[in-house]
């Protein structure tokens, strides 16, 4: 048996290319005492991965050249040399883009396929769902009757943000790319409205949909859309900066908001959000969202691509907007 791996070969310039990675076939790793051997079943593909490839200070160290590309993963324990897990257990972790890994138990969490389909644990019950839960509720702090706008509305984080905001009694407006995505979040997820940024003027559409302004903006894209929403915020608005996918592949300086004075005029707050800060409370969020899922109050959509060998091209679906829902690879 071999272990296929993608390691980082170069720091990407602009969009990721296959040549930025090295593909290798290595021997099956052997777990030491206290470790376990895990077979990868699903690999999570997230916009944050693009930032992890860059050098420089960030909230997490960059992936080193020659290191297996970091990624959220879900797999099955084949061999266990630790009492923490047994063969047959399903676990989530971050062992990267490879078929197998020998790992210590730290950083792994057991999941139950009887409670939810396995891909949900990399989506709504994984990092994207946790990001949505804590980013909206703790930083956005929505109140019943307020207007919540979320960009990347049909993506892994955005679809959860909008649904939680509806559960909290808010009016929810999504921003997404394309008529199909907008129809999905309104028809299937219960958003009140959605702006198609590819065919509509975002500023004008928001003015019509939220004439009194926006109370909470959950930003996943940055760039021009962030600028447009800033012109429509209300007094004491809260802007959650979760991501800036429109800027991740820039070869020129990142475009910052030119309408930031709206924060001053409206005494508004803009705050960055990194999900790892909330790790001690992950259990609370998973319990709440698991209950909403079981009751049918929370839905999610996954975009699952077959084959580890497709990794470089599949990752770029995130940046072209081709993915529809939580993107992952089934190995």
From TrEMBL:
What's the source species for this entry?
Answer: Stagnimonas aquatica
Query: Where do the Enoyl reductase (ER) domain residues begin and end?
Result: 14-329
- Tell me the keywords, alphabetical order: Oxidoreductase
Please name the SUPFAM superfamilies in this protein's record. Answer: GroES-like, NAD(P)-binding Rossmann-fold domains
Name of the protein described by the UniProt record: NADP-dependent oxidoreductase
Signal sequence region: none
One of the record's GO molecular function terms:
oxidoreductase activity, acting on the CH-CH group of donors, NAD or NADP as acceptor
